[in-house]
Automatic annotation (TrEMBL):
GO biological process, one term: methylation
This protein's UniProt keywords: Methyltransferase, Ribonucleoprotein, Ribosomal protein, Transferase
GO molecular function: methyltransferase activity
GO cellular component: ribosome
Statement: the UniProt record of this protein carries the keyword ATP-binding: no
Species of origin: Lacinutrix neustonica
Protein name per Swiss-Prot or TrEMBL: 50S ribosomal protein L11 methyltransferase
Length: 95
């Protein structure tokens, strides 16, 4: 499944959260969070996303930031995070 977050496109596996990811695709979820990311994150930024869930903010930050380190203590969420990062190999290869 492809999703659009503002001006960035990502491939994701929605797992059991398809409804949530569809909300993401409509740009209605936490617009203030993305505005803060857009304001503060640049190509020199190193981001630590603790409680990253399935990687929504980590993926978004990775489009611009120098590095993004994401973790989630829930094994299900962490597995989804790993899957979604793997589906977007260009994010790992950009540097």
């Amino acid at each position: 499944m492809h999703i659009q977050l503002k001006n960035h496109t990502f491939q994701i596996d929605p797992g059991k959260n398809k409804h949530f990811w569809m909300c993401m695709n409509s740009n209605n979820w936490e617009p203030h969070t993305f505005a803060i990311f857009d304001y503060f994150i640049n190509e020199k930024s190193v981001i630590l996303d603790v409680g990253s869930w399935s990687g929504i903010l980590s993926l978004y930050a990775a489009k611009v930031a120098k590095e993004v380190h994401a973790l989630d203590p829930d094994p299900v969420c962490f597995s989804e995070l790993e899957t979604n990062v793997a589906l977007n190999p260009a994010l790992s290869e950009k540097n």
